[in-house]
User: Fold this.
Amino acid sequence: MAYLTITHLEKSFGTTRVVRDFNLAVEKGEFISLLGPSGCGKTTVLRLVAGFEMPSAGSIQIDGRDVTGLRTTQRNIGMVFQAYALFPNLTVAQNVGFGLKVTGVARAEIDARVAEMLRLIGLPDLGGRYPFQLSGGQQQRVALARALAPKPRVLLLDEPLSALDAKIRVSLRQEIRQIQQQLGITTIFVTHDQEEALSMSDRVVVMNGGVAEQIGAPFEIYNRPATPFVASFVGSHTAFDALVVDPGTGTVTLGGAQVTLGQPMSGKAGSMVRLALRPEAAHLGRVAGCETVLDGRIAQVNFMGAIIRLTAMVGDTALTLDTFNRPDTPPPPVGSAVEISVAARDFITLGAS
Amino acid sequence: MTEQTLSLPPAAVGRTARPRRNAWRAMSWAVFGMGILYFALPLIGMIEFSLRKRRGTYSLDAYTSVLTDPQFQATFAYSVVMSLITIVLGLALVLPTALWVRIRLPRLRPVIEFITLLPLVVPVIVIAFGYLRMFNTSSFLPMTGTVTGTNVLLAFGYATLALPYMYRAIDNGLRTLDVQTLTEAAQILGAGWFTIIFRVMLPNVFTALLSGAFLTFSIVLGEYVFAALLDRPAFGPYMIWTGGNKAYEPAALAVIAFAITWGCMGLIQLAGRLFPHTRAKR
Ligand SMILES: Nc1ncnc2c1ncn2[C@@H]1O[C@H](COP(=O)(O)OP(=O)(O)OP(=O)(O)O)[C@@H](O)[C@H]1O
Ligand SMILES: [Mg+2]
Assistant:
């Protein structure tokens, strides 16, 4: 039995259904990210779990107990908000101790726990400061400590890093993950930044239009996207239209070459199917193990450091491919003709086109 | 203007810009000085006049006379107590309402704002006569029949008069806070409404609250119509009565009222300094 179970959750505002048949089972200590474009209902799911909104249908269970009807104050959940939401009139220490104080914990115990939390977030000496005397990154760390101090059963984070600048965002990302693993706390993290979701999570829920399109480990989400939306939203790819030759063996014609994908497909022979290819699945030159060789012409070279991103025209499709930088091999010049090899199994089928 | 000056050689910039800036400065000082005179002269005149009760020399006789007048003491004390009651009443009415509207009913805000403005639109005398009709001794709720009842009625009337100022002051204070998120942050940490109002919201709108309270105080202290029509021994009617019956005392009274006003403003400043978080946000 999972620790946090969300079953057939629905939420409508007026006539708009914002969350539809949302199901999720989170194991104890697991870090789950809700990933999706703006307005897809991520925050709403989080607010339903927190008890700020009541679901139109469905239920939420924590540790085997149904909490759907419980008030926010009774759920024992910690939450970190995008805008920090620290209490401006309280010091850092008072903010962190707030949750303990309202539940009547003894003074000495509060002080000890606050000190422990401040050490955990690496700000042991800032207890006496007011929030306005802290940087954004520090404020968000205090908010994390405040959420964790009462030992919540579940931690919710709603885009906690999006108000911070890029450098702090990356370091705080690692810090949050490390603290989460250290405490083993069950966590749901909302973000629209795929890099964040993929790098931090045990599992990612990709949402679109209020629906969970795919739930899986980052590796799985990225390499085996279940729907065209997931494939296009997570990572970049080149899409091809191919002609189905034999749906049973998954054989298609692509740019004049016949490719056997090795997985059966739903379309009939003679119909078109849409395929996707990740930039790192296409290789320059002939490569052992790659059955498909496409002829292309280099249209663009973007040197990005460790990786060089090339755009090659294959027929009239612009195909992106990534190669690793090697000091002894400069990238091919723009306009040169190249051969591009692809392993048939690396094509992702997006469905009929 | 900047484009023009930029295209001029450096020397020319100095020549044209400096006199212009000086002229501008002189102008603003002149306007400022006139403003000061406009406000200060009547005040100085009033203070000077209030000191002339004793013939041929300055003295504080008018002040002594006012301050030792038992009627002054009684009416002033009455109005101060009434204003405190009104402040508590107004706060109890406005703070939860303003919070609730911000958190749960943001669409109702224009309606609430309109309602709180009504006391400015409807003349006090209309409200007062309305009260007298509704609550006279032959009505279903004869509040004017007893002194306590009348006092309660007066406090409600005052609270109505103070409503526009109180609401605006508190709403302004709440505007600087992210009320919704702070409320949710407190709730998820287990805080109930009492804690949210008294530990989270109140301390953060304290200066705004003080200015609301202070405005209420000065309104109640000077209010005439309600007190006169309900026949209560308040400070407003006393001031009017003094103004019609004495020469130097009204001036002294005005100076005293002025000093109280400035004292209150000083207190608000002090409060801002004692609560650093409310100051830094502005
Ligand atoms: N209280 C509400 N009343 C009406 N509609 C709402 C309410 N809250 C959210 N919505 C709508 O529900 C949809 C989902 O909102 P939600 O905030 O969950 O999106 P999100 O995925 O968190 O987006 P973002 O990445 O922009 O934060 C939006 O279309 C929004 O307009
Ligand atoms: Mg959101």
In short: The longest strand of chain A covers residues 292-303. Chain A touches chain B at residues 50-52, 72-73, 75-79, 81, 83, 85-89, 98-99, 102-103, 130-132, 146-147, 150 (CB under 8 Å). DSSP finds eight helices and 20 strands in chain A.
